[in-house]
Amino acid sequence: MAYMIKESSCTGCSACQSECPNDAIFEKNFAFFVDPAKCTECIGFFDKPQCAEICPMPKTCIINPSVPRFAAAV
Amino acid sequence: MKLGTRKVVAELHVMQPPLPVTEQRGCASKGGGSNSSCGSAAGQGDLSPEVWEKVKNHPCYSEEAHHHYARMHVAVAPACNIQCNYCNRKFDCSNESRPGVVSERLTPEQAAKKVLAVASNIPQMTVLGIAGPGDPLANPEKTFKTFELVTKTAPDIKLCLSTNGLMLPDYVDRIQALNIDHVTITINMIDPEIGAKIYPWIYYNKKRYEGVEAARILSERQLLGLEMLTARGILCKVNSVMIPGVNDRHLVEVNRAVKSRGAFLHNIMPMISAPEHGTVFGLAGRRGPTAQELKALQDSCEGEMNMMRHCRQCRADAVGLLGEDRSNEFTTEKVMEMDVHYDLELRQAYQEDVERRRAAVVAARNAELKTLAGSDSGISILIAVATKGSGRINQHFGHAKEFQVYEVSTTGAKFVGHRRVDNYCQGGFGEEESLETVIRAINDCVGVFISRIGNCPREGLLKAGIEPIDRFALEYIEQSAITYFREYLERVRNGEIEHRQRGDADIRQGALITT
């Protein structure tokens, strides 16, 4: 039910952190991570996930395959 | 990549601050018949007293000041809201030096402490800029918090910021309220069709825009921000990245557009581009301009407004005089251990001494210029200079990490650029290859002023047709250049030498870190 940040390509720029409407992104050792319990894939807020919209690296803010997709209002 | 040492490459904007532009005038050919009075090149020139007062000690705004005063950048702004094809955010090379590259990021509190530490150790440090490594206005809270903290503890330090302009109209009030002296906007185009080739996307109002639409929004916001700043009397410089084949000819139009909106200074910078940088342009094999191409464009814009030519495109955490980088002395770890005494009086006393030395440079130049009065010659030559600052020829050839280039004609000596020569990885090349690097970098110069030089490089330079000149060691640069030029004209008249146009030269790119 969440997005995740691919650590190997994250530049650590922090741009995603301030755009996240759920406050789901946190920093650890200069890299950024998404808390899957907080992430809603921006459903209910925006058409597109904000982390992926502002991320300077392609294919870095991606769907987290290890958790189920977020389902709004379920 | 090791955590904690990662580098981020961001925008190619370099610091600049804004100015009251109401009195802005073109640069025409006023000023005692000397081109060098124009713009940022020399002294007050055409500038109104208010503008001059704001820029005279600012190394990024005044070419003359940059020999004497230092600046620092603090990397508190890592996030960016646009993507540029000459920028790679995932860059990691400790020898790299260009805008957007930093070795560490700071919190506003760490940054404020660092500013105090540097100001206490380098009394000629007069300017604090925030330039990234992303965009300062994409990190507004960190940026403004840093300025607030510094204003409280070091009120004599001038503040400036450098932005891509996308969010600028939203923050003009805060910039004014914080008394930020100067703002630089990076404007690479006013035509969205051209912009679409430079910017793949922007992030604006919670949405990613692409192509021509993105470039149109960006351009509108940049020009609106520029107008708003100049209307409030905040000094504005415009940076443009010259990208051959994309916006090189278009920058003449950009120059007109920003001048008409009150920009005080235009800084056309060569794109830094190599495949190993991993940028879109670098990977596509798109090259930066040669020295001649850059100078021709700068010259063609000079009639319109002040041109800046001494920009070193420094890192977002650079410290020191332009052309040097002492950031390694002021890492967070070192700064936190430093015992800092901020002594305003000591700083002022030091700066008064700098002013005396600086006045001596100008007086010597003006006196020497009189010796050229009445001479009439269409000849102009370029001279490379090895200098550690203070306007003197005071560096050994072999120690020079860059050469400053002066154009000399009967109208005087004018700074027209600088060439980096430190761009070879250590141990990769022998002495001969290093000399080749230098020769390619200053190949358009007839001679090179140095304080000393060894026999081997001396012979190599002579073979390349570049005269090594050490007889002006420790003398003033401009005064010596005029003396040399007067003698050069005599030698041409006597038939001793033949004046020939020299070839082109390389603009070298890469490291500028003093270790």
Query: Nearest-angstrom radius of gyration of chain A?
Result: 11 Å
Radius of gyration of chain B: 22 Å
Order of helices and strands of chain A: EHEEHE
CATH fold-level label of chain A: Alpha-Beta Plaits
Tell me the number of strands of chain B. Answer: 16
- Strand portion of chain A: 15-25%
* CATH top level class name of chain A: Alpha Beta
How far apart, in Å, are the first and last alpha carbons of chain A? 12 Å
Number of domains of chain A: 1
- Under the CATH scheme, the architecture of the largest domain in chain B is Alpha-Beta Barrel
Share in helix of chain B: 25-40%
Label the overall shape of chain B. globular
The first-to-last residue Cα distance of chain B is 22 Å
**From the 3D coordinates, which CATH architecture of chain A would you assign?**
2-Layer Sandwich
Structure report:
The complex is a heterodimer of chains A (74) and B (515). With 74 residues, chain A is α+β, with helices and mostly antiparallel strands. Chain A has a single domain (3-63), classed as Alpha-Beta Plaits, CATH 3.30.70. Helices cover 14% and strands 19% of the residues of chain A. In chain A, strands 1-4 form a two-stranded antiparallel ribbon. Chain A is globular and about 30 Å long. Chain A starts with a strand and ends in an 11-residue tail after the last strand. The mean pLDDT of chain A is 89. Chain B has two domains: 35-334, TIM Barrel, CATH 3.20.20; 348-493, Dinitrogenase iron-molybdenum cofactor biosynthesis domain (Nucleotidyltransferase, domain 5), CATH 3.30.420.130. Helix content of chain B is 33%, strand content 15%. Chain B contains 14 helices and 16 strands. Mean pLDDT of chain B is 82; it is low at 1-42, 92-97, 423-429 and 510-515. Chain A binds chain B through residues 9, 11-15, 18-19, 29-31, 46-48, 50, 53-54, 56-57, and chain B through 3-4, 6, 8, 10, 78-81, 83, 89-90, 105, 133-134, 138-139, 203, 206-208.
